[in-house]
Design a protein that fits this description.
Helices cover 42% and strands 14% of the residues. With 392 residues, it is an alpha/beta fold.
């Protein structure tokens, strides 16, 4: 059969680092091993019943069997605005400041194509969510790294960034609570971000995927809560994590009117719109009781405590995450992140994500997901205790 070569653009896309990890895990599963998968970010709990019920009801409505409005239903945009006012005290214009997204990832990958021309510079956190790189490649833009270091609580240090890079940059990605480090942002950091962006004409895109997940009684703050944030950027919110709706592919962007307009223009050419029943269910999630979100947050905090306390009992110097459903753990004994991940998989059949997969500054760490039961996390700690590197 004749093989048609892909375009140069497709060839320029970053390699999917974690696809190879999944293949390795599958090999162990095929051999009958009991693998504890702590390497991926797929929520393990079901979508709350009232949201599912709304989908079922809406799916039977013939109105939803037609094309939805290209830019989404007004009621979902209104629900997003009500959500932001209730949760963060932020006033959003549902007509001009909300764009419905086909999942948070779609928005993150689209936004560089909306605002950048080939050769333009975008500031990207390292370590960070690898799909940021995909958007950069599709826009044929240039990426400038913002290192996230432990000594700075995994926040970028704007003082170390060169004036030349800042003058070139047109876009900046941020993500707090952070994937992969579990760090959270402060009001002061976001205030500094607004000042920097305003001075240098940089559009800030805050990935707020884990906005509902904060520990020790501290609710993560929204970028838009800071004065002037809407002037310089947007925030992207997904229902995947807050409501266990990862497979539903629904989210939204809120903030700067011109950026929202650009997103909607691009999506007009890419999509028709989300299935109306999914939009009705999303509106239900955002406006109904948030008790399910509270309970989910408590579940992740219990899991965090089981994992962190267990690993500390082995003598492993680990830091508890402040948010997200990930723990970012230092690799012991000078091993590389891939070496340690391989030891865990090969010797005790635990999968974790090597930090190098999130960027060069991720080296020396592994990411562990809190997406297995407390029982499985205790079993993971027990298995890790059998490794020679943790012998007391």
């Amino acid at each position: 059969m004749k093989q048609f070569p892909p375009s140069n653009l497709l060839n320029s896309l970053p390699k999917q680092f974690f696809a190879s990890l999944v293949k390795k895990v599958d090999q162990y599963l095929e051999q009958g091993y009991d693998v504890i998968n702590l390497g991926q970010g797929n929520p393990d709990q079901p979508t709350p019943g009232h949201i599912v019920a709304k989908l079922q009801e809406a799916a039977a409505n013939p109105v939803n069997h037609k094309y939805s409005p290209f830019q989404g239903h007004k009621y979902l945009k209104q629900a997003a605005a009500e959500f932001y006012l209730r949760e963060y005290g932020v006033t959003i214009d549902p007509k001009k400041e909300v764009a419905i997204l086909f999942g948070g990832k779609a928005g993150l990958v689209e936004i560089p194509q909306c605002l950048l021309n080939p050769g333009d510079t975008i500031l990207v956190p390292d370590p960070g969510y690898p799909d940021y790189w995909s958007g950069v490649a599709l826009a044929q833009a240039e990426m400038a790294i913002m290192p996230l270091r432990e000594k700075n609580h995994f926040l970028p240090d704007y003082q170390e960034m060169s004036p030349e890079i800042l003058s070139k940059a047109k876009l900046m990605f941020l993500n707090y609570p952070n994937n992969p480090t579990g760090a959270t942002a402060t009001t002061e950091f976001f205030e500094d971000t607004v000042k920097l962006a305003s001075k240098n004409d940089i559009c800030v895109v805050h990935d707020f995927a884990y906005g509902a997940i904060g520990f020790d009684g501290k609710k993560p703050i929204s970028f838009l809560q800071v004065e002037g944030a809407k002037d310089v950027g947007i925030e992207i919110y997904t229902l995947s994590k807050s409501y266990n709706m990862a497979g539903w592919r629904v989210g939204f962007a809120v903030g700067n009117e011109s950026v929202i307009s650009a997103i909607e223009l691009l999506q007009d050419h890419l999509y028709v719109s989300l299935f109306g029943a999914v939009q009705e269910a999303a509106a239900e999630a955002l406006t109904a009781s948030q008790e399910c979100v509270k309970e989910l947050n408590q579940l992740y905090e219990r899991r965090r405590n089981v994992l962190i306390d267990g690993l500390r009992s082995l003598g492993w110097d680990v830091t508890a995450p402040k948010g997200s459903f990930f723990a970012w753990l230092k690799v012991p004994n000078g091993l590389t992140s891939e070496e340690f991940a391989n030891i865990l998989l090969e010797q005790v059949h635990i999968m974790v994500a090597p930090g190098i997969g999130f960027g060069q500054y991720g080296e020396g760490f592994v990411r562990v997901g809190l997406l297995s039961s407390e029982e499985r996390l205790r079993e993971a700690v027990r298995r890790i205790s059998c490794l020679e590197i943790f012998e007391k």
